[in-house]
Amino acid sequence: MTETTNHLDALREASEASMLEAVEIIAKLADLPLCPTEEPPRLPWNAIVEVHSVFQVRGEATDERHATALFDVLKREGDLKPLTVWRCGQGVILIDGHHRLHAYRRFQGRTRIAEGVPVVWFKGSLDDAIEAAAEANTEVKLPLNTQQRMSFGWRLVIMDRYSKKETAKMAGISERTVANMRGVRKTLEESGIDRDDLPVSWWQASRDARHMDKSKDRLDYEEFKHEQAQKWADAMAKTFSTRLARSPEIAALALDIYLGGKAAEVARLLLIECGDPLRDQIEDEWLQDEPPF
After folding, report:
1. What per-residue string of b and e applies to 191-217 under the rule 16 or more CB within 10 Å gives b?
2. Rounded to whole angstroms, how far apart are CA atoms 79 and 89?
3. Which span out of 50-54, 180-184, 197-201, 279-283 was modeled with the highest average pLDDT?
4. CA-based radius of gyration for the chain
5. Max CA distance (Å), the chain
6. Among candidates 72, 71, 62, 64, which has minimal Cα distance to 94?
7. 255-275, pLDDT tens digit by residue?
């Protein structure tokens, strides 16, 4: 068995392992000399290893509608945007483009064409590669929803490889939320749960922690407020796309109709949230007391 085969077998083992075990396997391979060093513009799809637990930011499930849409584009146009891959030892790991790879696998499985998949090569360390996977998903393509952002942030907290600020930026969540996640991790670990056995889902982890520590029953109001606001914003984006932003006057009229007597209160709060020059005056007049939880 060749060394290349050994590396591929190790990466495929990582793809089936738990997140922390996968990180450990990849870190060991990443420390080895890069050989071969060639970076061909196309690779066979089965030479690219997916390690969902580490690099698939939105979770392991494939959005079949998105994958099917990409498959249709592939049939019409012949190629999709190149996948981002990373050389790890003598193997290759997918950093960004999981749905595109899914489409190529489906397409080439039907057509039996062995042209390979277009790729671009990422250079950097394991930590850089994880960060690149996160940054790739900040682009407007198939946006992360609130649950995916929170779960990815929680996975980064479990890895414990990034600062609070870095984790917040990569996952698209607040530093306050990261601090809360670190508190939950501490609660679970102090209960006797090994880090490798921590729940991958943030919602499950936070629920488990609240059962263990009653002081966590009341979420911080600011965190609760931002989480709820993001969920509502996701729902609005799904319904209206960019129409509200493109037509602010119509959006304002629609909100006035919808909010009724609460429209003025919402308008004042919106001015404060947006950093309007009248913010200090409005805060003094309108927000003297912290809103109740």
Report:
1. eebeeeebbebbeebbebbbeebeebe
2. 28
3. 180-184
4. 23
5. 75
6. 62
7. 888 888 888 888 877 776 655
Q: Please choose, from the candidates 222, 137, 207, the residue with its C-alpha nearest in 3D space to the C-alpha of residue 172.
A: 137
Look at the alpha carbons of 69, 73, 78, 79 in this order and tell me if their dihedral is positive or negative.
negative
Contacts of 267 (CB under 8 A, 6+ apart): none
**Which pair of tokens denotes residue 12?**
């495929």
CB 179 within 8 A of CB 222: no
217: DSSP letter: S
Strand order in the sheet with 42-43: 42-43, 117-122, 83-88, 91-96, 48-49
**What's the rounded Cα separation, in Å, for the pair 175 and 141?**
25
Point out which residues pair with 119 in neighbouring strands.
Answer: 83
In this structure, what DSSP letter does residue 31 have? T
Q: How far apart are CA 155 and CA 181, in angstroms?
A: 10
Amino acid at 97: G
Residue 191 φ/ψ, nearest 5 degrees: -80, -5
Summarize the confidence of residues 62-87 as an average pLDDT.
80
- The residues facing 98 across adjacent strands are none
The dihedral region occupied by 174, where left means phi > 0, alpha psi between -120 and 50, and beta the remainder, is: beta
The reported pLDDT for the residue numbered 86 is 92
User: What per-residue confidence (pLDDT) applies to 32?
Assistant: 76
> Strands 48-49 and 83-88: what pairing?
unpaired
Q: What is the Cα–Cα distance from 47 to 8, expressed in whole angstroms?
A: 8
Beta bridge mates, 91: 88
Alpha-helical (H) ranges within the chain are 3-16, 19-30, 52-55, 64-77, 98-111, 126-136, 146-159, 164-171, 175-190, 202-212, 221-240, 243-246, 248-259, 263-273, 279-286
